[in-house]
Amino acid sequence: MSTSVSELVVSVAEQDDAAGMVEVIHAAFGARPPLDPPSTAITETPASVAATLASGTGVYAEVAGRPAGALLVVPTGPGLVTFARVSVHPDFQRHGIASALVHAAEELAARAGHRRVELFARAEFGQLITFWEHRGYVVDRPAPHGVILAKDLPAVVVVPTGPAMQDLGERLAALLRPGDLLIATGDLGAGKTTLTQGIGRGLDTAGPVISPTFVLSRIHPARGDGPALVHVDAYRLHSAEELDDLDLDATLADAVTVVEWGAGLAEGLAEDRLEVDVVVRPAPDADDDLRLVALHGVGPRWAGVDLHALRGHRG
Ligand code: ADP
Ligand code: MG
């Protein structure tokens, strides 16, 4: 069978999807080698899946209108969720559907304010454990017949407007210190520069933060005693060597450095970094799209910083 991925639709599961999800779960778990003890997935019914969706949420995938993937998101504690029944219909394997399910589920869980995912994998399925490890999950502890894998979710802030994006930048600035490196990703027009404008306002730095057309890097000195803001647009850069030519090393230690389009290029600049990923999503009841800003700290600098405190603020 050949099915184009363009026919793949991944959506937040609704009650009506429960029957399709059970079809996928039964087909996927039925196709796996027999286990001892057997998985309880086969006992799922449309009613049991609908009940789980009612207390949590889920992700459902269809390919050309046929049930293709299912994943249940179940709250298990404060800020904590598990993913269960992660299934791809055997007819639709190797289309990247599992990755799409996990990606969507992580976004859903993070948007709902959850901080961490823990999930169970059977010890028999080494490949499955590898699948999760490739997506940033680490084996946290043993569990009967398998292991618990875990991943911390980024703090996701829902940002409805441009001014709200500046406001988020301003509040983020209050957490920043000299030496901090921020790597911002997101499509053109997502709001990376708008966020950086707010950071400049929060740090009280001089000069308007604008999208550089020819200038790749601009230094905005502090008006007070705080750090300068170094704003870099790496859109036109193709290698870490070209980034080296900007001499960011010279200012890095004393400034706050924000690199737009820096993913894959700027990680080597510092030991720690704050990854800021801006994505555009349709707003349920407004004309304008909204933005999701996912904040993820890497390295010891960010270990104790509560980025989730930036959520849920109405400015
Ligand atoms: P980028 O630097 O990611 O290419 P910009 O910040 O330059 O994006 O542009 C974002 C544009 O989208 C601005 O014109 C901004 O006013 C507009 N906008 C609309 N809604 C939002 C929002 N929720 N967050 C950020 N920008 C928004
Ligand atoms: Mg920009």
TrEMBL record:
Belongs to the TsaE family. It holds the Pfam family Acetyltransf_1. The lineage of its organism: Bacteria, Bacillati, Actinomycetota, Actinomycetes, Propionibacteriales. Residues 8-154 form the N-acetyltransferase domain. It is found in: Cytoplasm. Required for the formation of a threonylcarbamoyl group on adenosine at position 37 (t(6)A37) in tRNAs that read codons beginning with adenine. Is involved in the transfer of the threonylcarbamoyl moiety of threonylcarbamoyl-AMP (TC-AMP) to the N6 group of A37, together with TsaD and TsaB. TsaE seems to play an indirect role in the t(6)A biosynthesis pathway, possibly in regulating the core enzymatic function of TsaD. The keyword ATP-binding applies. Its main location: cytoplasm. This is tRNA threonylcarbamoyladenosine biosynthesis protein TsaE. It comes from the Bacteria. Keywords: ATP-binding, Cytoplasm, Magnesium, Metal-binding, Nucleotide-binding, tRNA processing.
